[in-house]
Amino acid sequence: MTSRTTQLLAGLSALALIATGCGRGDSGGGGGGGEGAVRTDVGVTAEPCKDTPNLTKGCIFLGTISDLTSGPFKALAVPITEAQKKFWERVNKSGGIDGYGVDVTTYVRDNKYNPETHNQVYQEIKSKVLGLAQTLGSPTTAAIIGDLGDNNIVSVPASWTSAWAFEDVILESGTNYCLESMNAIDYAVEQFKPKSVMAVHYPGDYGEDAAAGAKVAAEKNGLTFEAVETASGQDNQAGAINAVNSKKPDLVILTTGPTDAAVIVGQTAARGFTGKYIGTSPTWNPGLLKSPAGPAFKALYLQSGPWETFTADTPGHKNMREILGAGVTGNDGYTAGWVWSYPLQAALKKAVENKDLTREGLLKAVKQLDKVDYEGMLPASAGNFSGDANAGVVRETMIAKPDESSPTGVSTVKTFFVGPTAKDYKFDKPCFQS
Amino acid sequence: MTTFLQAVAGGLGQGSVYALLALGFVIIYKSMRVVSFAQPAFMLAGALAVSFLAEALLGIPSPWGFFLALVLGAVGVALLGLGIERTVIRPMVGKPVFVIAIITLGIDIVVRLVANIFIGLDVRPVGDPWGLNSINLGGVQVQERHIVMLVTTVLLVAVLFSFFKYSRLGLAMRAASFNQETALAQGISVGTVFATSWAMAGALAAVAGTFQATGAGIDQNLWIIGLKALPAIILGGLDSLGGAVIGGFTVGLVESLVATYQGDFAPWLGQNFSVVSAYVVMLLVLLVRPYGLFGTKEVERV
């Protein structure tokens, strides 16, 4: 008898759950009627957000899936997430999205940089959010990209692979690893005329994307090229170190994590390597200057990046620093999180203007964006999501050098430029697939 | 020849890290028959403690400030090991070893998460005085830190072996590992043996972590290197202290030599064969000696 009662209760609770689940979806669509009303479906409620009761039109929920505790990119992910929180606070303070508040704090999940975990937490929050304010990592986002596309869930990536240029639902900002490495090589050719290039890179669409771009640029400039794949982990760099020391290339394009970069740059220099390194932005961490490899970094290393570092002078950088407050130590995770948020703000605005804040409506709004105001943080032409991959992709890169006096450990030596290789490059698929 | 000697020097340096870690694993295994997966976390916590202590002790002339920090850090992690053994592991004694092994996995995660908070966002230097300086030994460039690592490891191994051979507690530990019940009947406190083994393993892991971090610094992935001790202990034999040391150095040497020569002699193996080379050697040894090079052969009666 007791077990029957339990079964009955369990069945009833399940029914109740299903019923409330449906209710949530319906209430979100409250604005569906009436002329002039904004249509909504998932992730937008008629009630204001809990932190912005003054924005009475409703609340837009955006999810965040990031590497917040124990994964390898925590050092970037935490400031990215913090900057995005502040970005949307600023949006809410200045009237929200035409009277709608934006909530990016209710559905924040940790992916531990694991694609499986990423997918799992994504499934948890997907029915509650309109889009994703952040989905960190290329392999992790690849695990959900099919589902994002199927459900029209517009998402802001926290990675720079060239694959995003081919995904409608992904709102990427700044250049990708592939074009960045092309520009890095063109810059090196102009500055110190290398004859040989080696790409030392992680496997996957971070390292391989950069290596593919480096190969294209090396061939175009008539340089010899070799790619050396290396696994992550300080103890796994012996092969890469040996390759650099035995082949002695004039230029190494480096796409690893920071400590692995320290091992490679430090150890090769200790064994007498005198060529140059140019690393992509995830390779860098301000702590590297204080590491044993610090002197080697100062002597040999330059860093390429999709935008200027934390201390730059653009209106966007200034606003970001002001809102983050004086107590914050400069970190380019903040810069990245901030820059990435502009196109989503523009798309939401456009969707509300179109009176269609459904998932489909938001995606439609994205496709209508032909430029985004990044407050000077990216070139004026950036943010074109209306055309194909070649029209939309940002090709500008900047170059920085290690600099102890800057809080991020680097300062700009060459601001936005497009090298001849990147300028003419035509995408027909992501670089790492070619 | 110079290239070969250079690879050997690097391999011995890295091998000493593996050897110290492997010793910690084996000491706990011998006393409790459990592979403790908390070792990687102790390694991270130790390196981190030393980095903070070295910063605090900057006033003491180099390199003594760093060595003092290393000793204090090792003692700190030993106490941490002691505390964890007393509160979390001891109540589980008598439960299947599998259960205890899973608990050590949990300890590993908790200790690492706490350590991660202290690492902060930037790569932390461990504060050693050597950097990447090297000296010339007969035409071979050898990094100072590798020499220090090797010498310290040899000293620690000598001290440990004398401890097990000559001290009362060391003998008690060997007796308990041989047969716990008989040891108990002879008046040996098996609890003390367990506690000591956790403390020793913690201290060894702390030294290993610090040495590993001298190359590039501490980030939250440093712990993964702790798992490299697994092929070392299986290679040497799970219950052999000498095997752990030899296994550790073998893994270091094999990795370094494969990284140096495989590209020239066996490029068809791919670019990163050195990463798996330790496991290949382990498998080869297991084919010939299923209990490792120096492990005790278990007699199974069916």
How would you sum up this structure, described in words?
The complex is a heterodimer of chains A (434) and B (302). Chain A has helices at residues 2-28, 74-93, 115-125, 138-142, 145-150, 177-192, 204-220, 238-247, 258-270, 294-300, 315-324, 332-353, 359-368, 389-392, 420-424, and strands at 39-40, 44-45, 58-66, 100-103, 108-110, 131-136, 155-158, 196-201, 224-229, 251-255, 276-279, 301-305, 356-357, 397-402, 410-417. Chain A contains 15 helices and 15 strands. With 434 residues, chain A is α/β, with parallel strands linked by helices. Helix content of chain A is 42%, strand content 17%. Chain A folds into 2 domains: 37-174 and 312-392, Rossmann fold (3-Layer(aba) Sandwich); 177-305 and 397-433, Rossmann fold, CATH 3.40.50. Chain B is mainly α. Chain B has one domain. Chain B is 70% helix and 3% strand. Chain B contains 11 helices and 2 strands, in the order H-H-H-H-E-E-H-H-H-H-H-H-H. In chain B, strands 1-2 form a two-stranded antiparallel ribbon. The radius of gyration of chain B is 19 Å and the shape is globular.
